[in-house]
Amino acid sequence: MSLSPLIQQLISALRCLPGVGPKSAQRMAFHLLERERDAALLLSDILRTAVTDLGRCEHCSTLSETALCPLCADQSRNQKLLCVVETPMDVLAIEQTGGFNGLYYVLGGHLSPLDGVGPDDLGIDKLVQRLLQEQVDELILATNPTVEGEATAHYIAEQLQDLAIKVSRIAHGVPVGGELEYVDGGTLAHALAGRRAI
Amino acid sequence: MSLSPLIQQLISALRCLPGVGPKSAQRMAFHLLERERDAALLLSDILRTAVTDLGRCEHCSTLSETALCPLCADQSRNQKLLCVVETPMDVLAIEQTGGFNGLYYVLGGHLSPLDGVGPDDLGIDKLVQRLLQEQVDELILATNPTVEGEATAHYIAEQLQDLAIKVSRIAHGVPVGGELEYVDGGTLAHALAGRRAI
Predict the structure, then answer these.
(1) Do B51 and A71 touch (CB under 8 A)?
(2) By the 8 A CB rule, do A109 and A87 touch?
(3) In this structure, are A49 and A60 located in the same domain?
(4) B30 vs A66: CB contact, 8 Å cut-off?
(5) Is B28 on the interface with A (CB under 8 A)?
(6) Could you report the per-residue pLDDT of A45-62, keeping only the tens digit for each?
């Protein structure tokens, strides 16, 4: 083979990045080696530090290098509003809307009996404990609008039936800016069923 | 800001990769942290080793961790055929065709007076020295088919006028598998002018 072994190793290591195939990995490897050696060293250092230092926030289970993540530590946020999401990336997505000022609880996935993921793996018991101890007025279930996400949301809602907490689910409907003719039937049916007076 | 500082640093460090914008960098960072921590550590190690250990082959100037790259060290290759390319990635591209069995010489770019890149920066003097010392029958100029690549090829050809070496340029023409109606005028004119008897 014509390539130096080290370049081949770098190309195959870059394949661990999502969406990076053999051609992109090649392009990345040569680009870093030819033009961005300082940036590559920096990336190497930060990758190592991030993987070593980032654990879970002990309050909401999102990724955090401190025991309490910046969101949970922020006293200016509404402590009585709790939003349940599947992943830390969902936290970021909701934060970037700027439309939510409460706290989060990250499940780390969804219920999936076939993969052996049960309520305990998602920390749902810990969530119930938290709701028993803290003064939470409303729990927003913002799991993904997939079959598994819906099942997870329903399961959590069931567990909380006896508590005096308002439990809500994010709205399903047509995406803003979309065109009706391209929206799938299931979504459109949800949008009709969930219509609101204006 | 809602993200832990370390994740933000990782996301911005990933932006050094070509073709990776803010959204892809976010996705990559969370993917590595949530699912591929071992692979991320491996990538960190290999990045550091590659940047530290990879230098230039002293014979052809391609990227190599050894003084002589695997291609130059391979005695089974045709030592009398030399192909001049702009970058190490071009070497890989030609090698992957499987249609060339000679040696390479990597310029590391093209002539570009406006950017202050002259013949010395490309090691063209070193190339001429090599041709004076070694028995080379044919020199193939495989610089890019761009204005700068053409100028570089012509400059090198001029330097070698007095040497008894056959100098050739890779063919310009219509790409294999393309359709004539989508080929640009310049390429089509080249393809017509360079027509060959069948």
Answers:
(1) no
(2) yes
(3) no
(4) no
(5) yes
(6) 999 999 999 999 999 999
Contact B86, B109 (CB under 8 A): yes
- Residues of A (61-100) whose Cβ lies below 8 Å from B: 63-66, 69-71, 87-89, 91-92, 95
Q: Are residues B181 and B91 in the same domain?
A: yes
Place of tokens 């000679």: B102
CATH number at residue B34: 1.10.8.420
- pLDDT bin (cut points 50, 70, 90) of residue B104 is very high
ipTM of model: 0.86
| Domain count along chain A | 2
In a shared domain, residues B173 and B185: yes
**pTM for the complete prediction?**
0.83
Same domain, B180 and B94: yes
Per DSSP bridges, beta strands A63-64 and A55-56 are antiparallel
Give B1's contacts in chain A (Cβ within 8 Å).
Answer: 70
Residues B84, B152: one domain? yes
Summarised one tens digit per residue, pLDDT across range A142-167 is: 999 999 999 999 999 999 988 889 99
CB contact under 8 A, A33 and B45: no
Q: Does A117 touch chain B (CB under 8 A)?
A: no
Could you tell me the residue range of the domain that residue B181 belongs to? 56-197
Nearest to A142 by CA among A179, A117, A178, A106: A106
